[in-house]
């Protein structure tokens, strides 16, 4: 068997693997990238891109009432899901070409097929052996079977089925704790489905700051999404007129008839990778890595969903992890700054949370101060009717270290970038309070929230 | 030109981590000076200069080196040195003082290590948070090296400096903020768990989480032990209690061979040889050097071995071979007035004897109360393979032999 030799082989060409391969090539390495299906991975083909696009459409829809208030005479609006899909499919095809172009430009070899470790430093792809000094495992995640009774009915679907279907389901039950369910719930509601959003947790986005999650829940309820918390699916029976779903919680039982049940549980894609041949545990929920993305096995790194718990499956984590792993394999010494991972939702209002909530910070022993500035008090917020928006800054008193920034409102996903930069650059409350943001913008509220932490808000009553 | 290589410090040793160089390239060294420090998973070891010369390190700090690998060259003069540096690229050295810093916070060898936090004009690159923390702790930023992008001083660098504590200037500790009364708690010292501490840490957790430990306590009359020690004169020097106890434990283990055993997966190995470790404190760490075959040695020979191991431990000269393949351990806390404790087994061993102090106590003998030397004994056994009764039987044999050492020969 012939054997091809690389400095680095990346297993998986998704949001993590592609940046990893490019960074390694920039550092002078000979790099091979193995991809079984489509370059761009789940994010580009079935996740962030199509759903980001759908959420963008949903946001425009949500802007129509404000437009009318502003005197724009928008006549009846119709929604054409196939047209929406065609647009994102065109965009995805364009982006895939872009990925191939970027890889080629950096002389990364694209190896088509399924890769499997055979020992340290060796990977087999459909009968061909590859040898590499460094290996980055970036094969992402796969759908996990729902564990409730009735979970194997074909009407119990994932987001993939939404993308593949011609029509959107009329009546939908979304069940689980994935934050993505929340945005899909809003999209479907706005595209005329009847939506029930149910979770085992005490609230949607249960790990996030209370001001953020309660405001989002309020908006969704007002739009007509039925939110059921502290509940579990006890059974689903398929009848002619739909799926009869029995949900039961601590003190109540509820029945819903829907056309589809959507779950979005994804778990690290560990099987068929040959992890056991190098001493890694293929039965664990995901591969544990250190801040250098090392797996503990020399020369083997893991990034993205394969190395993340269910609550941390984010493309931006995968990309940053990929760059760090590539740098470490090339002999640099980079580590992941976990302080700046943004949890983001493209609902309307958008949600973006960075760092610790006030509650978490107290648990970790910080002497905490929080300050918040509602967007309803912000000039531009008033102009674009941001009644539900707020910026919350969580900091530590002694040095003014910013521990977390929690945003809900128009453009929160973009404001998050400023928050990431502030935390990464280790700005203190003082710097944030003194940032001169342009007027009139929503970002001004970030400085105001910092000033509130310092006890000197200017524009708050 | 002399090649500086990684010595083989023990039979089982295959590689070592190069902890730090004491000299950088081009510096003159004298014979006998420490050139570099290496570390195996068991010991750290200083490599000394075999001759006078000019040193040129070629392996970077923190790298792992195989036994016999060349890590540097010692040139006899400048001319030879100039030859060497043409052939071998230099590496970054001089991380010795902050060697306790976590590896990840160090600049990558040879890449960004030259980045500096001080810019021309005296401006120091430091994050606002780092400045705020430095001001609160009266740290001198110019004395710090930054690990952030472009050598910027970041929070992690301040935390490291505070851990090292060496940079606190100006104020005396009594005047430092927040050491006064406070409702909160703040660490006065933050010690990274690494090196030997990490090994102890992992071993102890592994021991308690993966075996079923039962500790049995008893008290023995120590009169015979005290008088034996008085009489056993080792060349004008008294033998140690530990040496006598080791001999007695070895004899008791011969009577109860199943105590001298290890679990390995689904099988129990009952060991033929007896090798007894003696737990001791050295350089702030727990070290357990092992005495080989004490059952075949005289008490004087054991005592000699124990002293030798204590000396090696104090001088940091232990080789990995001095630490491996124990089958039983003795831990003596008598010096600290401890009577009883629950010693933790050192895996893969299955038992450990805790020895308490020897102290005079009132004892009822016949109808009267007499003063007598007594000592506490605490035996921890792995109940997975040693039941309470055989464990107690072993302890009883031990107690009997301590009270009447002649029993060893019966």
Please sum up the structure shown:
Chain A has 461 residues and is an alpha/beta fold.
Per-chain topology:
The complex is a heterodimer of chains A (461) and B (410).
Chain A: E1 3-11, H1 17-26, E2 31-35, H2 41-46, H3 48-69, H4 81-105, E3 109-112, E4 115-119, E5 122-125, E6 128-137, E7 141-143, E8 156-157, H5 159-164, E9 171-175, H6 179-190, E10 194-198, H7 210-223, E11 226-228, E12 231-239, E13 242-249, E14 253-258, E15 260-262, E16 266-268, E17 300-302, H8 315-329, E18 342-345, E19 350-355, H9 358-363, E20 368-374, H10 379-383, E21 390-396, E22 402-409, H11 412-424, H12 429-433, H13 444-453
Parallel strand pairs in A: 1-2, 1-6, 2-3, 6-17, 8-15, 9-10, 9-15, 10-11
Antiparallel strand pairs in A: 4-5, 5-6, 7-16, 12-13, 13-14, 18-19, 19-22, 20-21, 21-22
Helix pairs in contact in A: 1-8, 3-4, 3-6
Chain B: E1 2-5, E2 15-21, E3 28-29, E4 34-39, E5 44-48, E6 53-57, E7 64-66, E8 70-75, H1 78-87, H2 128-137, H3 155-164, H4 195-210, E9 213-221, H5 223-231, E10 233-234, E11 237-238, H6 241-255, E12 261-264, E13 267-270, E14 275-282, E15 285-287, E16 290-292, H7 299-314, E17 328-332, E18 351-365, E19 368-382, H8 388-403
Parallel strand pairs in B: 14-17, 17-18
Antiparallel strand pairs in B: 1-8, 2-4, 2-7, 3-6, 4-5, 6-8, 9-19, 10-11, 12-13, 14-15, 14-16, 18-19
Provide a descriptive summary of the structure in words.
The complex is a heterodimer of chains A (461) and B (410). Chain A has 461 residues and is of the alpha/beta class. Chain A has helices spanning 17-26, 41-46, 48-69, 81-105, 159-164, 179-190, 210-223, 315-329, 358-363, 379-383, 412-424, 429-433, 444-453, and strands spanning 3-11, 31-35, 109-112, 115-119, 122-125, 128-137, 141-143, 156-157, 171-175, 194-198, 226-228, 231-239, 242-249, 253-258, 260-262, 266-268, 300-302, 342-345, 350-355, 368-374, 390-396, 402-409. Chain A folds into three domains: 3-142 and 267-336, FAD/NAD(P)-binding domain; 156-264, FAD/NAD(P)-binding domain (3-Layer(bba) Sandwich), CATH 3.50.50; 340-453, 2-Layer Sandwich (Enolase-like, domain 1), CATH 3.30.390. Chain A is 32% helix and 26% strand. In chain A, the strands form five sheets. In chain A, strands 1, 2, 3, 4, 5, 6 and 17 form a seven-stranded mixed β-sheet that branches. Chain A has a five-stranded parallel β-sheet with strand order 8-15-9-10-11. The N and C termini of chain A lie far apart (75 Å). Chain B is of the alpha+beta class and 410 residues long. Helices cover 25% and strands 26% of the residues of chain B. In chain B, helix 2 runs parallel beside helix 3 and helix 6 (241-255) crosses helix 7 (299-314). The longest helix of chain B has 16 residues, at 195-210. The A-B interface holds A 291-292, 331-333, 335, 367, 398-401, 425-428, 430-431 and B 103-104, 106-109, 111-112, 127-130, 132-133, 136, 154-155, 184.
């Amino acid at each position: 068997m012939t054997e091809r030799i690389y400095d680095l082989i990346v297993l998986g060409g998704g949001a993590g693997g592609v940046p990893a391969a490019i960074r390694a090539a920039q550092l002078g390495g000979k790099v091979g990238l193995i991809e079984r299906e489509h370059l761009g991975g789940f994010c580009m083909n079935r996740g962030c891109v199509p759903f980001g696009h759908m959420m963008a459409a949903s946001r425009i829809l949500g802007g129509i009432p404000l437009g009318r208030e502003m005197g724009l005479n928008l006549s009846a609006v119709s929604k054409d899901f196939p047209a929406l899909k065609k647009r994102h499919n065109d965009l995805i095809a364009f982006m895939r070409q872009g990925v191939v172009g970027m890889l080629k430009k950096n002389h990364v070899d694209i190896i088509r097929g399924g890769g499997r470790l055979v020992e340290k430093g060796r990977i087999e792809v459909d009968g061909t052996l590859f040898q590499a000094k460094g290996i980055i495992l970036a094969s992402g995640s796969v759908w996990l079977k729902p564990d409730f009774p009735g979970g194997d009915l074909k009407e119990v679907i994932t987001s993939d089925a939404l993308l593949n279907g011609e029509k959107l389901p009329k009546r939908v039950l979304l069940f689980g704790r994935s934050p993505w369910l929340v945005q899909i719930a809003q999209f479907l509601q706005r595209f005329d489905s009847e939506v029930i959003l149910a979770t085992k947790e005490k609230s949607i986005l249960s790990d996030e700051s209370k001001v953020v999650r309660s405001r989002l829940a309020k908006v969704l309820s007002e739009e007509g999404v039925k939110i059921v918390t502290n509940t579990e699916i006890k059974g689903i029976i398929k009848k002619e007129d739909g799926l009869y779903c029995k949900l039961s919680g601590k003190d109540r039982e509820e029945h819903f008839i829907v056309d589809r049940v959507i779950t979005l549980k994804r778990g690290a894609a560990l099987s068929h990778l040959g992890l056991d041949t190098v001493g890694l545990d293929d039965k664990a929920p995901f591969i544990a890595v250190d801040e250098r993305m090392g797996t503990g096995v020399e020369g083997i790194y893991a990034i993205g969903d394969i190395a993340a718990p269910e609550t941390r499956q984010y493309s931006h984590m995968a990309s940053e992890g990929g760059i760090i792993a590539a740098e470490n394999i090339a002999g640099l010494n980079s580590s992941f700054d976990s302080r700046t991972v943004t949890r983001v939702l493209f609902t309307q209002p958008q949600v973006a949370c960075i760092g610790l909530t006030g509650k978490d910070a107290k648990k970790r022993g910080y002497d905490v101060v929080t300050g918040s500035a509602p967007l309803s008090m912000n000039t531009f917020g008033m102009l674009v009717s941001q009644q539900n928006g707020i910026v919350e800054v969580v900091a530590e008193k002694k040095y003014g270290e910013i521990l977390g920034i929690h945003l809900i409102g128009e453009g929160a996903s973009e404001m998050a970038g400023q928050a990431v930069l502030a935390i990464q650059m280790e700005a203190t409350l003082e710097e944030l309070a003194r940032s001169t943001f342009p007027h009139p913008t929503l970002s001004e509220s970030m400085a105001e929230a910092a000033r509130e932490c310092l006890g000197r808000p200017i524009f708050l009553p | 030109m002399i090649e500086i290589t990684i010595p083989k410090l023990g039979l089982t040793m295959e590689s070592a981590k190069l902890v730090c160089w004491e000299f950088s390239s081009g510096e003159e060294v004298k014979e006998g000076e420490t050139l570099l420090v290496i570390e195996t998973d068991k010991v750290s070891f200083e490599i000394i200069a075999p001759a006078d010369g000019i040193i040129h390190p070629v392996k970077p700090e923190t790298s792992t080196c195989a036994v016999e690998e060349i890590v540097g060259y010692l040139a006899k003069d400048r001319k030879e040195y100039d030859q060497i540096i043409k052939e071998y690229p230099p590496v970054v050295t001089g991380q010795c003082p902050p060697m306790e810093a976590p590896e990840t916070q160090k600049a990558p060898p040879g890449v960004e290590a030259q980045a500096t936090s001080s810019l021309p004009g005296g401006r120091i690159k430091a994050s606002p948070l780092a400045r705020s923390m430095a001001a609160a702790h009266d740290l001198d930023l110019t004395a710090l090296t930054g690990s952030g992008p472009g050598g910027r001083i970041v929070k992690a660098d301040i935390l490291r400096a505070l851990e090292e504590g060496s940079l606190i200037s100006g104020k005396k500790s009594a005047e430092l903020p927040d050491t006064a009364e406070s409702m909160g708690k703040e660490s006065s010292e933050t010690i990274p768990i690494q090196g030997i501490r990490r090994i102890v840490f992992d071993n102890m957790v592994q021991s308690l989480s993966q075996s079923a430990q039962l500790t049995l306590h008893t008290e023995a009359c120590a009169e015979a032990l005290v008088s034996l020690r008085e009489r056993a004169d080792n060349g004008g020097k008294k033998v140690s209690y530990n040496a006598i106890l080791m001999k007695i434990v070895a004899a008791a283990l011969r009577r109860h061979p199943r105590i001298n055993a290890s679990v390995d997966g689904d099988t129990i190995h009952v060991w033929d040889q007896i090798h007894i470790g003696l737990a001791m404190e050295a350089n702030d760490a727990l070290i357990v050097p092992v005495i080989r075959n004490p059952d075949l040695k005289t008490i004087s020979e054991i005592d000699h071995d124990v002293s030798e191991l204590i000396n090696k431990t104090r001088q940091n000269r232990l080789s990995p071979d001095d630490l491996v393949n124990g089958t039983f351990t003795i831990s003596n806390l008598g010096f600290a007035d401890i009577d009883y404790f629950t010693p933790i087994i050192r895996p893969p061993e299955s038992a450990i004897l805790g020895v308490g102090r020897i102290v005079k106590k009132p004892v009822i003998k016949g109808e009267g109360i007499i003063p007598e030397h007594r000592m506490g004994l605490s035996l921890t056994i792995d109940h997975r393979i040693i039941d309470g009764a055989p464990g107690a039987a072993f302890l009883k044999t031990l107690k009997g032999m301590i009270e009447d050492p002649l029993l060893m020969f019966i």
